[in-house]
User: Fold this.
Amino acid sequence: MFLAYWTNNLPHFLGPHWGNIGIRYYGLAYVLGFLAGAWLLARYARAGRSQLPVEKIADLIFALVIGVMLGGRIGSFLLYHPEQLRHDPLSFFRVWEGGMASHGGMVGVVLALAWFARSSKIRFFHLADLITSVGSAGLFFGRIANFINGELWGRPSRVAWAVIFPASPPPLMPRHPSQLYEAALEGALLFAFMQWRFWRSDVVRRRPGRLAGEYLAVYAVVRVIGEYFREPDADVSLILGLSRGTFYSLFLVVAGLWLIRRPSRPLEPATR
Assistant:
């Protein structure tokens, strides 16, 4: 019945691997995301649209790597699988088994930015604008890696582009490739919007923090759209009838609207 649908049997490693040792596409996605962010931040600085000097970009990226990895990992357990952390605490360190939460990663980014802003004496909300303007590049690569790994699959569907994911619960059936929907929405679309706002307006200089607020609000909307096509995790309960991803996104809307309406003083002109 389902012979016409493509089955996702893509390898999880780039090139040869030995057991769990090798270049995973998921890890490669993080590397590409951070490299894209660093390149854009350097371009901002050279264009005179950023107060983050080129020589400090590597330090910021390092802080963000720590924030994203710890925040995403801790968030995965606290927001989605708290019982696993109690029953099997060592599973936190088995990173090859997967388990990262984008909402937790955002909290880690906020903490890393707060620390870096204080140590470098650069305004926090300016840094937040810079990072949110490039962050969707990482989300794009990450969702593509989710698809390659055959995880976080969508709801059953008979659309022509539906995919069979062998790791999904039996009986196997075609499903929405919701990872690709999220890559398009959270990644490509949101990235294009943020780059358009960054380069085509003076919002970063005039209203520090507003661009970050727009990012949070729009991300929450497209995340909810993506959640509509995504199959809720079987071992994760709903909250008020909503998936965890949808419920946590409501807090992002509130935070985003607060940042958008928050009064702020303009930045001083950047020095090249």
